[in-house]
Write a structure and sequence with these properties.
The complex is a heterodimer of chains A (378) and B (582). With 378 residues, chain A is an alpha/beta fold. Chain A has helices spanning 2-27, 36-46, 57-70, 83-95, 108-115, 130-133, 202-223, 233-242, 253-260, 297-308, 310-316, 352-367; strands at residues 48-52, 75-79, 103-106, 121-122, 154-156, 160-161, 165-168, 192-195, 228-230, 247-249, 268-270, 279-282, 287-291, 343-344. Chain A folds into two domains: 33-157 and 284-337, 3-Layer(aba) Sandwich (D-Maltodextrin-Binding Protein, domain 2), CATH 3.40.190.10; 161-282 and 353-375, D-Maltodextrin-Binding Protein, domain 2 (3-Layer(aba) Sandwich). In chain B, helix 2 runs antiparallel to helix 14 (273-299), helix 4 packs across helix 11 (225-241) and helix 11 (225-241) packs antiparallel against helix 14 (273-299). Classes of the chains: A alpha/beta (378), B mainly alpha (582).
Chain lengths: 378, 582
C-alpha cells in the first residue's frame, strides 16, 4: 500500500516536473534559451531593436552602422538624445503603458540615479553568452564591470583612463607645475578652465579624482582659484589649445583629438601618472542595460551580446575610448589603463553619495564665493 | 475680393439677411469654441502642469507629490538673484539700443521711397533665419581679445595699444544680441505694421509744419503703439529665454543670467525639473502683469489706420536717399552677409577659426552630411513637419488673433493672455508639459510618436510670435471693412477669408514662413515628442554639435537657410499676387 502510495507520489512528481519543464520551455523568455541559433532566428523575426545610445556620429557609426553590418536583418531604431531629455520622456511613456525601448546604452548617472529605481531594467545576466562573461575576457574580471550594487542590471564595458588634468605645456613650463596641489597656487589663478563641477558629468568626475588625490581642503582651494567654469567641452579644448586657459580640468579626449589631428595643440597633454596616488577609470557612455518589457527581447539579446563582444569592442576603442575587454588596446595610448597605477571606478552606484556630496560642496564653495566681476576686463 | 468689392454686392432682403447672420453666427461660435478649446488644452494645461511640477517632489518616474523642495532649491541658490539682476541689466541695454534703431529702419523700409526697400526687407527675413550659435562663433573669431581678427587689424593702427574689443564682456554679450536677432526680429515685425498707416496722417502732419522726425515721433509711433508694445514685450520675453550667447560668452567673467540658470537645472542629470519649473513660474509671475498692461494699452482705444479710404504714399527721402541707401546696405550686410560668410567658413574649415594649420579647407563636412542616411530621412521629416506646421499655424493663429481682436466673445481676453504663455516659459519645460498632456489624455496617445503631435508642438511653441504679428495688423483694420461686407450679405467665413485675410496677407505669410523656420530649426519644442523615426534636421544638427562636429552642424544650418529662403521667396511672390496692393 505504502509502496503504491509512494509510487503514485513519484508519478505525480514526475508529471509535475514534466509539466514544470514544459511550461518553463513554453513560457520562459526566448532569449534565455541555450540555443543561440534560435535566439538569433527569433531576433531576425522581430526584425527591429530599439536602442538609446550616445549622441553623435562616432557612436552612431558603431551602435548603428557596425551592428547593422553584422546583422543586416535586424534594423536598429536609434536615439542619441541627451539623458536629460530622454529619461523623463521614457519614464512618462511607461506610466502611460507605452513600452518602446529594448536596449539602453549610456553613462551610469541617470541609469542608476533615476531609471533603475523606476524598475526600468530587467536582469542582464541571463541573456549573456558564456564567452562574454568569462573572467579572463575582462580587465579585473567580469564582475568588476557591474555598476549597480546588486550586480544585476547595468554593466560597463568601457574603461577609459580619465586623465582629467591636461596642460598646454607650451604655455606652462614643466618645472612650474610639479603636483596636483599646484592647481591651488595663486600663480595659476585665472589660467584654469574646468568642466562645471556643480553639475553631474565630467566636472563632477574630475572633482572626484582630485578629491581622492589632494583631499577636500585643497580641492576647495582649487575651485576658489579664479577658475573659469563651462559645460561646453569644445570651448574647453579650444581655450586650452590656444593657451587662453592653459590648464584644462575635465577636457575630453575626443574634443582634444579634433584639434591635435590637425596639428594644433600637440603639447596639450595630461600630467604624468606619478602626480596621482589613484587614477579614475571613466565609463563615459559605455554601459548597457536590458530594458524591462522590451518589445523585441531576442533582438535585444543579440544586440547586447554583440556589443560586449571583442569584435564590437575593437571598434569602440576608435571613438576614441578605452575598453575593459582584455587584450584590446586603444590606439590612443592615453586612454588605456596602465600597469603600476592604482585605479578606481568612480561611477559605481556604491560611490554615488560621494559624487552627490561633491556637487553640493562645489555649489557651496563656488557659488558662495564673492562675485568676480573684476575679471571682466573691457 | 477687396472690401470695396464686398461692399458693392446688392443687399439681400431683411429676412434673408437675418437667416444668414444666424448661420454665420453659429459657425463663428463653433469655430471660436474649437479654437479656445485647442488653446486651453495645448497651451494652458501644459503651463499649469509646469506650475504643478514646481511643487512636485521626487523623480519624474513617480506620481506627483506635493512639496516645496523645488522652490527651496531655486531660491537657496545664491547665484539666482544675481542672475536675475544681470538679466534685467542686459534686457534694458539690448532693447534701449535695438528698439529705436529698429523703429528707424522699419519706418524707412515701410514708409519711404528708399530704392530696393523690398529687397532690404527680405534681407532682414534672411537674417532671421541665421542660427544664433553660428553667428556667435563668427563674432568670437572677430572680437576675441587674443586672436580676434578685428582686434588684430585695429591693433595695427598707430594710436591703438592692445586689443580694443573683448567679446567676453557685458558689452560683448549686448553686441552679440544686437548682431544676432535683437534688431532683426523687431524690424520684421514693425515693417508690416508701419506699412498699414494711412499716409494722409503723415501728410497732414507735414502740412502743419512738422519735421520728418517729429512726424515719426508724434504720428507714426503713437498710431502703432499696440504693435510697438507687443513687439517690445515679445522681444524681451525672447531675450529672457535665449541662453546660447550667455552660455558661451558668460563663463570667463562669471556672468550668469536667468535662462542659463534654468538651462543648468534642466541639463543636469538627473534634471531638477522642480527647481527649473519654480524659476520658470517666477518668470511667469513677472511677465503676466506686463501682458495685462500690453492688453490694456492695445484695447483702451482704437488704433485703426486701415480703412476703405486708406491711402499709402511713400515719403520722399530727397537728398537723404543715397546716404540712407548706403547705411541700410551696411546694416543689412552686417546682419546677413557676414553671418552667411561665417557659416560657409565653418562648413568648409577643418577647424573653425584656425587659418594657420597646414590645410585649413575641406569639403569633408559636406560629404559627411550628404552621405549620412539620417540626413536624407531628416530632410523628409523636416519638410513634412515644417510644411504641416506652416499651414496649421496660419489657420490656427489667424483665428486666435482674429477672435482676440475682432470678436466680442466671452473669454477672448483669456485667449489673448494664454497665447503669450508658450514664449513666457522655457521651451524644454513647455515641451515637458506637452508630453504629459499627450501621454496622459488617452485620446492623444495613439498619435504619440507620429508627425501630427510634432506639428502641434511646433505650432503651439510658435503661437506667441505668430499671434502677435497678426494681432498687431488686425488692430490697425477699421471695423467699417467688416461692417461693409456683412451689410453686403457676406457670411462671417466669407468676410474672414475674402476681406480680412487678403489685407493682412503679408503678415500671414510672415507667420507661415517663421513657423516653417521654427519647425526646421527649433529643438526645444520637438525634442521630447520626437522619436528615432521622426528625427528632424534640428535634432540631427544637435547630434552633430553635441559630438563637437561643428562643421557638419554648420552644413545643416546652411541647408535650413536655403530651404527657408526658398520658401520666403515663394511667400513674397504669392503675397504680391494674393494680397491687396496699396
Amino acid at each position: 500500500m505504502f509502496h503504491r502510495f509512494v509510487g503514485s507520489l513519484r508519478a505525480i512528481a514526475l508529471i509535475a516536473a514534466f509539466a514544470v519543464g514544459v511550461s518553463a520551455a513554453l513560457f520562459a523568455p526566448a532569449w534565455a534559451a541555450d540555443d543561440w541559433n534560435t535566439v538569433v532566428a527569433n531576433a531576425r523575426k522581430e526584425g527591429v531593436v530599439v536602442v538609446h545610445g550616445a549622441p553623435g556620429k562616432g557612436y552612431n557609426t558603431i551602435l548603428v552602422g557596425a551592428f547593422q553590418k553584422a546583422y543586416p536583418d535586424i534594423k536598429v531604431q536609434y536615439s542619441g538624445a541627451a539623458g536629460s531629455v530622454e529619461v523623463p520622456k521614457v519614464l512618462r511613456e511607461r506610466q502611460a503603458g507605452i513600452y518602446n525601448w529594448d536596449v539602453w546604452v549610456s553613462g551610469p548617472t541617470n541609469a542608476l540615479g533615476t531609471l533603475k529605481d523606476a524598475g526600468f531594467f530587467q536582469p542582464l545576466r541571463p541573456l549573456l553568452r558564456p564567452e562574454n562573461t568569462a573572467d579572463d575576457q575582462w580587465i579585473g574580471g567580469f564582475a568588476a564591470g557591474w555598476m549597480d550594487k546588486d550586480q544585476a542590471v547595468f554593466y560597463a564595458f568601457d574603461g577609459t583612463n580619465q586623465n582629467p588634468v591636461k596642460i598646454n605645456w607650451d604655455v606652462i613650463k614643466k618645472d612650474q607645475f610639479t603636483s596636483l596641489a599646484d592647481l591651488a597656487k595663486p600663480e595659476f589663478a585665472g589660467k584654469i578652465v574646468m568642466h562645471d563641477p556643480r553639475l553631474t558629468g565630467t566636472g563632477n568626475g574630475t572633482s572626484q579624482t582630485l578629491l581622492h588625490n589632494v583631499g577636500e581642503e585643497t580641492l576647495k582651494a582649487i575651485w576658489r582659484n579664479n577658475v573659469v567654469y563651462t559645460i561646453n567641452g569644445h570651448q574647453i579644448a579650444e581655450w586650452a589649445v590656444r593657451g587662453r586657459y592653459p590648464i584644462a580640468l575635465g577636457l575630453e579626449p575626443n574634443e582634444l583629438k579634433d584639434f591635435q589631428s590637425q596639428g594644433v595643440g600637440k603639447n596639450v597633454m595630461p600630467v604624468p601618472d606619478s602626480f596621482y596616488k589613484e587614477q579614475q577609470i571613466s565609463v563615459g557612455f559605455g554601459a548597457v542595460g536590458f530594458v524591462d518589457r522590451a518589445p523585441h527581447p531576442n533582438a535585444a539579446a543579440v544586440y547586447i551580446n554583440w556589443l560586449l563582444s571583442a569584435e564590437a569592442q575593437k571598434l569602440w576603442v576608435n571613438l576614441p575610448r578605452g575598453t575593459r575587454r582584455a587584450g584590446i588596446i586603444s590606439p590612443y595610448s592615453d586612454m588605456n589603463p596602465r600597469a603600476g597605477v592604482s585605479y578606481f571606478l568612480g561611477q559605481k552606484e556604491a560611490l554615488t553619495s560621494e559624487r552627490t556630496g561633491l556637487i553640493r560642496l562645489a555649489k557651496e564653495t563656488i557659488d558662495g564665493a564673492a562675485p568676480r566681476s573684476s575679471r571682466e576686463s573691457k | 475680393m477687396t472690401a470695396a468689392g464686398a461692399a458693392a454686392h446688392p443687399a439681400p432682403p431683411l429676412g434673408g439677411l437675418l437667416r444668414r447672420l444666424h448661420r454665420s453666427l453659429e459657425l463663428k461660435t463653433v469655430v471660436y469654441v474649437a479654437v479656445l478649446a485647442t488653446v486651453l488644452v495645448f497651451v494652458l494645461l501644459p503651463v499649469l502642469l509646469l506650475v504643478a511640477f514646481s511643487f512636485s517632489v521626487g523623480s519624474p518616474a513617480e506620481p506627483i507629490r506635493i512639496g516645496l523642495d523645488g522652490w527651496r532649491h531655486a531660491v537657496e541658490n545664491p547665484t539666482v538673484f544675481g542672475s536675475i539682476l544681470n538679466t534685467v541689466k542686459l534686457l534694458v541695454c539690448i532693447h534701449a539700443i535695438s528698439f529705436p534703431i529698429a523703429i528707424g529702419i522699419a519706418w524707412v523700409l515701410a514708409r519711404t521711397d528708399l530704392p530696393g526697400r523690398n529687397g532690404f526687407e527680405f534681407m532682414f527675413w534672411i537674417s532671421f533665419f541665421m542660427p544664433t550659435l553660428a553667428i556667435l562663433l563668427g563674432w568670437i573669431m572677430c572680437l576675441d581679445p587674443e586672436y580676434g581678427v578685428l582686434n588684430k587689424v585695429v591693433d595695427l593702427l598707430p594710436f591703438v595699444d592692445g586689443a580694443p574689443f573683448n567679446i567676453y564682456s557685458f558689452w560683448g554679450i549686448v553686441w552679440a544680441h544686437l548682431a544676432c536677432h535683437a534688431i532683426t526680429v523687431k524690424v520684421m515685425l514693425l515693417t508690416p505694421t508701419f506699412r498699414n498707416i494711412d499716409s494722409s496722417l503723415e501728410e497732414a502732419s507735414e502740412v502743419c509744419g512738422a519735421s520728418r522726425l517729429a512726424t515719426l515721433r508724434r504720428i507714426v509711433v503713437p498710431a502703432t503703439m499696440p504693435a510697438l508694445i507687443a513687439i517690445l514685450l515679445l522681444a524681451m520675453i525672447r531675450a529672457m529665454q535665449s541662453f546660447e550667447i550667455e552660455l558661451v560668452l558668460g563663463p570667463p567673467f562669471n556672468f550668469y543670467v536667468y535662462s542659463t540658470q534654468v538651462y543648468s537645472l534642466v541639463g543636469q542629470e538627473p534634471p531638477d525639473f522642480a527647481a527649473a519649473s519654480a524659476l520658470a513660474t517666477m518668470g511667469l509671475m513677472v511677465i503676466a502683469p506686463l501682458i495685462g498692461l500690453q492688453r490694456w494699452i492695445s484695447f483702451r482705444r482704437s488704433y485703426a489706420t486701415v480703412s476703405g479710404k486708406m491711402k499709402t504714399q511713400p515719403v520722399r527721402l530727397g537728398r537723404w536717399r543715397t546716404p540712407m541707401t548706403i547705411l541700410m546696405t551696411v546694416i543689412v550686410l552686417t546682419l546677413t552677409a557676414l553671418p552667411v560668410g561665417f557659416l560657409l567658413l565653418a562648413s568648409m574649415m577643418k577647424l573653425f577659426g584656425f587659418f594657420d594649420i597646414a590645410e585649413p579647407w575641406t569639403f569633408d563636412h559636406w560629404r559627411t552630411v550628404f552621405t549620412d542616411e539620417a540626413f536624407r530621412q531628416s530632410i523628409g521629416n523636416t519638410l513634412t513637419l515644417a510644411g504641416g506646421a506652416s499651414l496649421f499655424a496660419v489657420v490656427l493663429l489667424s483665428l486666435v488673433a482674429y477672435f482676440t481682436v475682432r470678436s466680442k466673445f466671452r473669454g477672448r481676453a483669456v485667449l489673448d493672455f494664454v497665447s503669450w504663455m508658450p514664449s513666457a516659459v522655457p521651451g524644454i519645460l513647455f515641451g515637458l508639459g506637452l508630453l504629459y498632456v499627450f501621454l496622459e489624455i488617452p485620446v492623444f496617445r495613439p498619435l504619440y510618436g507620429t508627425m501630427w503631435l510634432m506639428i502641434l508642438a511646433v505650432v503651439v511653441s510658435h503661437m506667441t510670435f505668430g499671434t502677435q504679428i497678426l494681432k498687431s495688423n488686425l488692430l490697425q483694420l477699421s471695423q467699417d471693412l467688416e461692417e461693409a461686407s456683412t451689410v453686403a450679405g457676406a457670411s462671417w467665413l466669407h468676410t474672414f477669408t475674402r476681406v480680412i485675410l487678403p489685407i493682412i496677407v503679408p503678415a500671414v505669410l510672415l507667420v507661415g514662413t517663421t513657423s516653417f523656420i521654427t519647425a526646421a530649426r527649433d529643438v526645444a519644442s520637438v525634442a521630447l515628442v520626437a522619436t528615432a523615426g521622426t528625427k528632424t534636421l534640428s535634432l540631427l544638427q544637435l547630434d552633430y554639435m553635441v559630438n563637437g562636429r561643428y562643421g557638419a552642424a554648420a552644413v545643416i544650418s546652411f541647408v535650413v537657410i536655403v530651404m527657408s529662403t526658398g520658401l520666403a521667396l515663394l511667400a513674397r511672390v504669392l503675397g504680391l499676387r494674393i494680397g491687396i496692393r496699396h
